[in-house]
Design goal:
Number of helices: 2
Helix content: 55-70%
Mean pLDDT: 87
Structural class: mainly alpha
Oligomer: single chain
Distance between the termini: 19 Å
Largest sheet: 2 strands, antiparallel
Radius of gyration: 16 Å
Shape: elongated
Low-confidence stretches: none
Strand content: 5-15%
Number of strands: 2
Amino acid sequence: MRVKVSEIGLGLTLVAAGTFGLLNGTMHHYDVPIMYPKLFAWMLIGVGIAVPVLAWFLRSPSRSNPKDK
């Protein structure tokens, strides 16, 4: 399997945190408000999508070393 379960779980967690931040409109870290919560929420969603995609891309067979064949 190219993408590990932990990477999928991390991606889903980040997407869920970003989605809840967008729906709520405010985000806090230890009761301190995060500046620009909508931007931060969209960044979380983007990183959550990018983690499994990058893991899949970096482990693709086309990127394997030709000397290994």
